[in-house]
Amino acid sequence: MKNPTAQWVAQQIIEAFPWDTAPRYLLRDRDAIYGERFRRRVHSLLIKEVITAPRSPWQNPYVERIIGSIRRDCLDHVIVFNERHLKRILTIYFDYYHRWRTHLGLEMDTPQGRDVQTPDQGKVTEVPDLGGLHHHYLRLAA
Q1: Does residue 95 sit within a domain?
Q2: Residue 31: inside a domain, yes or no?
């Protein structure tokens, strides 16, 4: 949604956690969109809100890390023509990020995990991702 309303955001929190799957805590900033209706809905889900200090993005390091990765690995290297193009680029990037990009915190594995490919499975082949911006490698039988 281009311009979400407070009512829409409040409904999203309910729809995000069906069947008693809500987390215990919600870390959020001080945006005015999180009004009384949103806070009531969060409270009804038994979620405790943790609100960051004003002008302190460092208090939410996970979001800052992923935004930095998206910029460094992807958006700093492409020209985005419009919203539809941006969505397409990000969809492809997120697929690459979860399936092929290794992460130090995961002991050089990917979030989705990867099978170990032994030399007898074939020759190493380079496969371009994001139009050649990144690559992953597979063993393919000759």
Answers
A1: no
A2: yes
